[in-house]
Amino acid sequence: MSSSIVRQRVVFFSSQSFVRLWFALLLCAVPLLAQTPGFTSFDAPHAGTLFNTGTSVAKINASGMIAGYYIDESGWKSHGFIRKPDGTFTEFDVPGLYSVTVTSMNNIGQVVGWGGHVSGNGSWAQGFLRFANGKVVPIHVSGAVSTSPTAINDGGVVAGSYFDSKGDHGFVRDAQGNYTLFDDPEVVTGREERGTFVTGIQSNGTVVGYYTGKTGTGHGYVRDEFGNFTNFDAPDAGNGFLIGTFPRAINELGEVTGSYVDIMGEPHGFVRDAQGTLTEFDPPDADDSSAFSSNNFGKTVGLWGGSQGSGGGFVRDSSGAVTTFSVPLRNTGTYPFDINDAGQITGSWVDAGQRAWHGFVQVN
């Protein structure tokens, strides 16, 4: 699912990026059973119903509140939404931005994301923070061409990436609006293929992400609250452009969830514990997979693809046992993106008719 064209240099390995690059094979219709208990499909009230429009989910918090964005019937304009546990929606736009992409939400209902902003010689990403009362403040690194928040913790600390004349860099913005800017120590700035990208944050301010080296290979890192870096690679990650190790999230146990791409260009899931032990995995019968989120009980969700168009979502528990699933409606793809501590899984699915996107939540 894509929104309007914005030069947004960072969320390169976002949920939708993985879907677009590696899971086109899921776009063959899979007939499934009727809805089952514990599963709810939903759409933002003004979401489009045509191909490549609809509802895209980003995050579910501890109370079951869901945040994301939708593309309307225009086919290009995106808007933010918040869905309460009772099923009621708040849709929103951000002043000064012609589109809205929501990337994360914390447990007190603060939402971050970015949108298209016309500036100088083109259209670039500008970030925002939306408070639970609806107030919106811009997130922008001074001197940056674009700023893209990707994570927020319960203290209101925002993390993300920005792009300037020297390349891509990471940032942390505290609740008072003060910015800390950083690059992974292994990155040489000023090269097009190199940069530092942020994907997740803990409550103590530890951030996780990846950096790209001289060949464009991705490498994972954890940056603690004091600014110390630990870099790592999945053992079977390949080297090359769009290849390598790409962390996606970090939970309060210090477990990092993400995917690595092998030398053949196929993604696979991994979980790295707080002691640095990294476990690679694919669900049974999967040719490839991508892990997106883990809750604080060690349950990991993601998506997988297999031969002859098979595939869907998966849940992997702390023992390593994997359960695969698809939404219980006729669909052409199931994409789980997040799980909370109550075991509620949320994500998006694509219908078998118009190929529009829809949200879902189910209990594991």
Give me the secondary-structure topology.
Blueprint: H1 15-22, E1 39-42, E2 54-60, E3 66-71, E4 78-83, E5 89-92, E6 101-105, E7 111-119, E8 122-130, E9 136-139, E10 146-152, E11 158-164, E12 167-173, E13 179-182, E14 195-201, E15 207-212, E16 218-223, E17 229-232, E18 244-250, E19 256-261, E20 267-272, E21 278-281, E22 288-294, E23 300-305, E24 311-316, E25 322-325, E26 331-339, E27 344-351, E28 357-363
Antiparallel strand pairs: 1-28, 2-3, 3-4, 4-5, 6-7, 7-8, 8-9, 10-11, 11-12, 12-13, 14-15, 15-16, 16-17, 18-19, 19-20, 20-21, 22-23, 23-24, 24-25, 26-27, 27-28
Second rung of CATH, namely the architecture: 7 Propeller
Class per helix and strand makeup: mainly beta
Q: Which quaternary structure do these chains form?
A: single chain
Basic shape: globular
Instruction: For the record, give the distance between the C-alpha atoms at the N and C termini, rounded to a whole number.
Output: 25 Å
Which sequence of SSEs, written as H and E, runs from N to C? HEEEEEEEEEEEEEEEEEEEEEEEEEEEE
Number of helices: 1
CATH homologous superfamily designation: YVTN repeat-like/Quinoprotein amine dehydrogenase
CATH top level assignment: Mainly Beta
Largest sheet: 4 strands, antiparallel
Q: In the residues, how many domains can be counted?
A: 1
Reported by name, the CATH topology is: Methylamine Dehydrogenase, Chain H
Rg is: 19 Å
Strand % is over 45%
Number of strands: 28
Q: Main attributes?
A:
mainly beta, 4-stranded antiparallel sheet, 2% helix, single chain, Methylamine Dehydrogenase, Chain H, 364 residues, 28 strands
